[in-house]
Amino acid sequence: MESLRGMSGNNSGLIAWLSSFIESPQDPASAAQSLHLTIEPTLANEGALWFPDLLAGDPTGVLPICLTASILGNVLMGWKVRPLRQISLLPKTEMYKQISFTGLRAFVIVLTCYIGFASFVQGMPTALMLYWITSTNVATLQTWILDNKVFSPVKFNHFIQKSIAFEKPGDEDPFQLKNLR
Fold first, then answer.
1. What range does the record give for the signal peptide (predicted)?
2. Torsions phi, psi of 48, nearest 5?
């Protein structure tokens, strides 16, 4: 992802920031240049979908909304948490563990909304957004296939108990209980 960020012309990535601590004191933009991350010219000349320039941000806001929705789908589908009614019935340590998972999931949901908002406001390059959306959707699809098709529990048809009585009209002992005694 950092290489795609560098090819898009964004020099304020994580690697550039970390390398600024290691190398001599220079600004992060020159640190990214020292990593030889050059802008790919085909990203500006050739487009994808309805975007003619993949280095520019999305002015319509469709991609940040798609990114937020795809990450939310991944989080909501992939993180199984118990309902609060079931959590209260658990032992104390397990209850605290499940509450922490629920809180962490809520934090990730809020963080996802922030990622979508920040990507729109900061004008994240379209190439990076398309990559991130595609990657997240493939991960969500992979999770769904693994959960529902590969590791799905075997479901048996429930046995329905039925009672049948054999009665003859006029028979006083239809189950032949006299013979069993």
1. none
2. -145, 145
